[in-house]
Every structure is written in C-alpha cells, then in structure tokens.
Amino acid sequence: MSQIIDTLGELAAKQKLVPFMGAGCSASMLPDWDSLVSEMAEQLGLTSITNHFEIAQKYVDTFGRDKFCEFLKSKLEISEFDDEKGYVHLTIMNMGVPVIYTTNQDNVMEKAFEKYGRKYRTIIHLKDFAEAKLSEQLYIKFHGDLNYPESIVFTQEDYQKRMSDPENAFNIRLRADLLAKNLLFVGYSFRDINIQQMFAELQKAFYGELPTSYMIAYRYSNELQSLCDQYGITLIDPMKECPEAKNHIEAFETFLKCMLEETRSKKFEDGMEEFFTPISSTPVKVVSKQEIDLLEQTIKKKPFSIGIKLFREICDLSDIPLDYEKRIVEAFTELAKKVKTDEDTDSLNAAIFNLKLKNPLNKLRILAALMATANVRSPKSKYGGDHFFVGMQGVSKSTYIVVAAKAIEYVYSWGWKPTPPLSWNVNHWIEKGADFKALPKQIQQYVMYWVDKMRRDCKTVAEHPIKRQQRLRDYSLIDPSVSLTEDETKLLSELINQEL
C-alpha cells in the first residue's frame, strides 16, 4: 500500500477530509465539456473555439441565462442512476463524511442518494443551511444548480462576481468546514473548463492561502501538476499509485476503492475507542464491478473454501449497488452448489449474516439457496434428524413455508437427490411458516408439488409437513399470528415463478 493511501485513509477515518467533487466523477455518464462548448459555438454560428469561457459568456449574452441553463440541463441531468457508471459517487457517498462539496451542476449525486434512500440535503441557497437537519448528509453545490439559473457560477463574469465577495455564504461555510481539516479534490483534470478559476476563487476565499489540500487527478498531466504546485496542492496520479490499471479511468476508480478500504480499516482500529460514544458515521465499502468479476471467476475455478472466503471479504457489511445484487445472488448460488459438509453449510450460513441486500426478492432467493444446502448435511439420528437454523435479516419466518419449497426446487435443478436431513429441515421450516390454508391457491399448489416430490424420492416415516403444520395449529401449538402481509404474498408469487 502506498504512503498517500495510508495518509488519506487516516485523515478520512478521523473525519478530517472534506471531499470536493469535479467533472471527472460524472464523466462516465455525461458528455465532456469540449462537446458541450462545440455545440454552443455551433448554435452561435462560430466556426472556431479559442476560449471555453468566452463561448459560455457569449451564449449567455445572446440567449440569456435561462436558455443557457436549459441547454446544460438537457445535457447534464440523468433520469436514473447507473451503479456501474456511478462507482465514484457511491464511494464518496459511503465515506461517512457529513458534508460533500461539488462544482458540478449535474444531478448525478442526487439520483444516487435517492436510489439508495439516503437522507441528504442539497445546499444551493443560504436558506438551505437553515432547513438542514442533523441526520442529513449535506451536498453543497458550490457553483449552483441548473434549476436555479441565478445560482449558477459558470461564465467569466460569474467567477469575477463570486471572487469579489469573499464573505459569500458558501465561502464562510467552507472555511468553517475546513477548520483543522483538509480539502480532497476528486475528479479534476487540467482540461476542466473551470479549474483555474476555481483555484483562484478558493484561494481568495481563504485570504490568499489554501488549507492543506490533496487532489486525486481524474487525468494526470504536467500542466495540472504545475497548477497544483502553484497553489500548494498535493497532486495524486492514480496511474502511478495503481500501475496495474489498464487506463486512467480504471486507475481513478481503483485508487478510490483502496482509499475507502483503508479508511474502513483505520476506522475499525479506532472503533473500540468510539464504541460507547460514537462521534462519526462509519465509512461503508462499496462493492465494485471488478470485485464481482473476480468473485465469479474464483468461485468457478477455485475450491469452496477459497470462494467463500473471498465472498465474505467482498460482501461483508458492504454496500452492494442495486444493479449488482443479481450477480451477488448468482455467485452465492454457485457457492451453494459446491458445499459438501456440515462445515461448508455453516460457513455459507454465516456469510449471509452481514450480507446487506436491498431487494427483498433477492433475499428470498439467497435464503432458498442456503436452505437447499441442508441436502448435504449429515443425519444426526437414524431417521435423518438435523437442525439447520437459518435466517436472514429482513426475511420473516412466515415466508419459510414457500422458501423451503423453492429450496427443494433448487435441489432438483442442481441435479441432487433429496436426502433425509433436507426432508427433516423442510418439516421444521414449514412448521414455522404461515398457515398453508391461508396461502393463495397457486402458491398452495407450488408448495404441495415440491414437498410431495421430495417425499416420493426420499422415503421417510415422518409425518407430511403440511399435515403436521395443520395438526399443530389445531392444537394451538403454533403461534396463530404468524401470517403473510400483502407485500410478502406478492414477493412469494414472484419467487415461485422465477426460473432457475
């Protein structure tokens, strides 16, 4: 690990980094400034482009600020956040910092917050500070928002106006946020349309001397190095720190991933000191596409013991982007197919304890795959007795009657023959579930089909689990309040109709 990652991890863990996001953070989802300025120049009837700011200023002078913002909105606003393309936003969102600054005027970070149900407050005007709640993460749009044309800082005239007022509310807030802290510029390059003006603006806000600052370059260049040297900013070249990366984009994301992991590690080391009186939120690791690619290949080629270890290293207490959850479920299912012993099934069971999935259907699929592994467990009595205690956070035991049937379907789809330990455990899972008679007819038929098939292929002297459940209910030996909600019933209908 490089010294700079160690330094940034230490600062972030102690809440001493204030991230400042640049255009490179959104580059994978939005057009670059060259193409935007070229289109503005074309609308203005200009054939040559000498200065981006002059073009922007001329566009505002010709068509007005509202038209200018409408043009940018059509290019810089997205309707839905893409997890794969938005890895940088997910990483910064999960750093555990209370405030994030940006010069970007797009809506990508807001869409990330909304997709993941995070409490946040976009700060555009002075009144937004007064309305913010302590539980909200602040997202301060330092150069305004396109929905409020008067707030935008973009043209040369805008920068001159901002720099003429060092007591601007945003400058005052930034100075307060940076008391005994450090700026971390993320995703800037020398080609950014506003970088030189931004540095001059910030230097003015801090009365001529920036606090200790770092910049993770989106695209390193000698020109950017000279500019950072001029303002006393430590510039980090991700390609140098991550030489195995194929290009500057992969290096940029890999560096952020390593920094976040180091932050979590440092936070954990200090965790016991804050255990009883926590003073800051904990950084959360974000699972990346590269990690899932590696996990899939490892599970495919390596033994179960290596696959389950990597699964936990990647997934334990991590933020799994919604767009990747299906792949995580499939990876878990492939692991389940490889179990051979009680110890393997116990390891798989432990792996779901810290598995943070958001889609409830994916939770049911994971639990069904885990239940299916009871098939390899050793019998603890001559009748096949076994107790495989399973559970997943957010999954009600009332669903077990259907999830257990799905587990039997998994067993057959994997080419396995049902065993007495599976049959024994299915009996107990069904006993804990909702009343069979209260299930919709389609679900009743599904459950009965797979239970009967299992019992035909695995002879047992045990009572039929459905009859057993009804008998226990008749004698009030089962909690009658265990029932399915309307949402759970809909989810189970989806579950039984999913092909394996």
UniProtKB/TrEMBL annotation:
Gene source species: Parageobacillus thermantarcticus
SUPFAM superfamilies, per the entry: DHS-like NAD/FAD-binding domain (SSF52467)
Protein name: SIR2-like domain-containing protein
InterPro entries associated with the record: DHS-like_NAD/FAD-binding_dom
